[in-house]
Amino acid sequence: MKVLSVASEIYPLIKTGGLADVAGALPLAMGHHGVEMRSLIPGYPAVMKKVGKTKKVATIPSLFGVKANVLFVVHEGLELYVLDAPAFFQREGGPYTDALGKDHTDNWKRFAALSLTAAEIAAGLIPAWKPDLVHAHDWQAGLVPVYMRYGRAPETPSVITVHNIAFQGQFSPAIFPELALPPEAYSVDGIEYYGDVGYLKGGLQMAHAITTVSPTYAREIHQGEFGMGLEGLIRARASHASGIVNGIDTAVWNPLTDPMLASSFSAKQLTKRAANREAVMRHFGLDGDGPIFCVISRLTWQKGMDLLAEAAGDIVAQGGMLAILGSGDRALEGGLVQAASWHKGRIGVHIGYDEPLSHVMQAGSDAILIPSRFEPCGLTQLYALRYGCVPVVARTGGLADTVIDANEAALSAGVATGFQFSTITADGLRQALARVFEVWRDPDTWRQLQKNGMKSDVSWDKSAAAYAALYARLVSKGN
């Protein structure tokens, strides 16, 4: 089976968040299930620099008035189509923002171009490789099912995966005449969304199947609290929606072979984590012998970082230390930096993102804090489980699906892997921290938590099988 995956970022070429990790790991996992998956990605400067020599497989004379080429390359096992359209993608800044952090004003056109190119590939733009199914990711690829339904490849099945329904790609209706869609597409049954144009809304409306990145999140987005205005559409299409929990690339995230670590280790060699702990303490200027809590996150309200700022003093008061890596809201960044200045040697903050440092933090910290108000899946808790870093998570979305709470029954049965808390407030986090410190004081129980987590199956094996089964059902229906 041939499947085209369409994503705005992909690891290891370009990454701003978990979408890139999923887009990079899923194609490799699908090969074990009889699926040949190729990925269409934008030709950002970082991508063009890293992929090196490519082969031109198609030319689009006018893609919204711009000449574009589709290039093919195999990079680190990934079979990639790169949309080489310099007018859209060769610019300074990140994938979505300029050098000053402001959204590119033509994001609507840039990602419409990506989506339209995917639909043309589905329709046979590259005769040597025509997909049986197209899998679009998030709002940036939300128009793929729309373009396919409106004439490009109406018979080819499509899947759209919602990685975070809070990001929807909502634009002024003034752009509609430039999208190369028929007038009827701008309707409540198409891409019209509260008077605007909704890219994710259109994808959810038109795709043959909808997936989210965890079963709990699939249920949560039926509710107004989590659906972000799209809950009515999700409920209407409930029979076409399902949740498939993310996995991680266990070759990249392997504490026995990870080249980024100060010391490799396994569940049978937990004492070797000590060198990584020392590296974390050095980097963040920490001093103490209590547990190290880490945070590797966007510093935003969604991620509960305001709750962390309130509870940070409790960690210090109970003898713990806190290492924070991330960036986001300036006010939250400032609050956490201020907490670090008040508690020198006990709290350290690194504003920004550093992939190698994130690996060392997972390998050297004792616990990771993820107090998210909502979390479609989350990947950091999966990395943490793999590295013996005990997750402390809010009971929501994929966090609830992937961490077994260390309640009395789970501890007695020897199956607990972390800590959950359901009242997502600063007090709820404080209560969870009290439980963590209680278990920490029992070294045998703590080691068992670590070993249980490291034995958890966080790979793509089961999830890839679920996607393969979904693809097969959709393709067989089409035939």
UniProtKB/TrEMBL annotation:
EC number: 2.4.1.21
Pathway: Glycan biosynthesis; glycogen biosynthesis
Catalyzed reactions: [(1->4)-alpha-D-glucosyl](n) + ADP-alpha-D-glucose = [(1->4)-alpha-D-glucosyl](n+1) + ADP + H(+)
Chain sites annotated for binding ADP-alpha-D-glucose: 15
Residue intervals of the Starch synthase catalytic domain: 2-235
Domain of life: Bacteria
GO molecular-function term, one example from the UniProt record: alpha-1,4-glucan glucosyltransferase (ADP-glucose donor) activity
Domain Glycosyl transferase family: 277-438
Pfam families hit by this protein: Glyco_transf_5, Glycos_transf_1
Keyword annotations from UniProtKB, A to Z: Glycogen biosynthesis, Glycosyltransferase, Transferase
Function summary: Synthesizes alpha-1,4-glucan chains using ADP-glucose.
Family stated for the protein in its record: Belongs to the glycosyltransferase 1 family. Bacterial/plant glycogen synthase subfamily.
HAMAP family: Glycogen_synth
PANTHER family: ALPHA AMYLASE DOMAIN-CONTAINING PROTEIN, GRANULE-BOUND STARCH SYNTHASE 1, CHLOROPLASTIC/AMYLOPLASTIC
Name under which the protein is recorded: Glycogen synthase
Gene from which the chain derives: glgA
